[in-house]
DNA sequence: CAGAATCCCCTGCGATACTG
DNA sequence: CAGTATCGCAGGGGATTCTG
């Protein structure tokens, strides 16, 4: 990774978010992950149990859901509450920080969802142009 | 993927964003990708050439950058302009749709970046608790 | 300069089976 | 119910080389 010696000419916009060793990227791996984002949006609405999340999020495996939740918990976005009832019951909810985060994620996902058909049309056009 | 037959009791929040076959997810693969999000934020500022992006985004390989840009272009978020100068020059910029998208992505990334230190601290605490 | 193509490794992730 | 543990493979992605 050759990086120029003259620090003068180097301009890194928006802080150092784009530099390879910026720790923010490690967090983005959790937040922007396929399942992480969906979990955050769901929990924004209300708290859910493990099996509820597994049901609501189509296509997720227990392994990935578990992993996703644990990472979000470690980051401090998600709170995990165990109720020692019978059968056991575990509730997941957002911390205040996770709630703030979730709002940003939701606005992004909503936008994409709203414009999905247009984007799909763009994809079709591109494929057509390539073929024709 | 067994889905209950009674559509009555099923409540899928926020449209069907969480269902496995929702096309929105395909788009999210591009938008929420490690490099895609960084590209979008950079291009929000101004247009860039390929090599500039490759330089600014630390750690990205030419292959991944190329792939990322092509996907965002196909989706209609990024515009690619070739200037047949010598040496050749290719400029990447955002379409209006991409610009809207970029704003959402930026607000998310900014938030994460702003709270990065707190999250890292949370991680350390979690690791400590696990060890202790 | 701006990529495409090839090779190849590594790991993310699903499937399955088992525990508290 | 709410997970862990183990296995196995497809494919994501880096390094390198080649083109216009």
Using the coordinates shown, work out and report the CATH topology of chain A. Arc Repressor Mutant, subunit A
Class per helix and strand makeup of chain A = mainly alpha
CATH top level of chain A is Mainly Alpha
User: Gyration radius of chain A, to the nearest Å?
Assistant: 20 Å
Largest interface chains and counts: A-B, 57 and 56 residues
Determine the strand fraction of chain A and express it as a percent band: 5-15%
Oligomer: homodimer
Principal-axis shape of chain A: globular
Number of strands of chain A: 3
The termini of chain A sit apart by: 41 Å
Low-confidence stretches of chain A: 1-14
* SSE succession of chain A: HHEHHEEHH
Integer tally of domains of chain A: 1
- Tell me the CATH superfamily of chain A: Winged helix-like DNA-binding domain superfamily/Winged helix DNA-binding domain
Strand count, sense and closure of the main sheet of chain A? Answer: 3 strands, antiparallel
Question: Which second-level CATH architecture of chain A applies?
Answer: Orthogonal Bundle
Give the rounded overall mean pLDDT of chain A. 88
Entry summary:
2 copies of one chain form a homodimer. Chain A is 58% helix and 11% strand.
Task: Summarize the topology.
Two copies of one chain form a homodimer.
Chain A (H helix, E strand, L loop, with lengths): L23 H8 L2 H12 L2 E2 H7 L5 H14 L2 E6 L5 E6 L1 H19 L1 H16 L1
Antiparallel strand pairs in A: 1-3, 2-3
The structure holds a DNA duplex (20 and 20 nucleotides).
């Amino acid at each position: 990774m050759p990086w120029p010696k003259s620090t003068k000419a180097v301009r890194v916009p928006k802080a150092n978010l784009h530099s390879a060793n910026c720790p923010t990227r490690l967090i983005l791996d959790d937040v922007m992950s396929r399942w992480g984002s969906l979990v955050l949006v769901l929990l924004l609405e209300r708290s859910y149990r493990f099996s509820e999340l597994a049901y609501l999020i189509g296509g997720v495996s227990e392994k990935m859901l578990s992993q996703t939740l644990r990472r979000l918990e470690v980051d401090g976005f998600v709170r995990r509450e165990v109720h020692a009832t019978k059968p056991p019951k575990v509730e997941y909810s957002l911390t205040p920080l996770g709630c703030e985060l979730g709002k940003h994620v939701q606005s992004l996902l909503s936008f994409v969802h709203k414009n999905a058909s247009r984007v799909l049309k763009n994809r079709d056009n591109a494929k057509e142009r390539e073929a024709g």
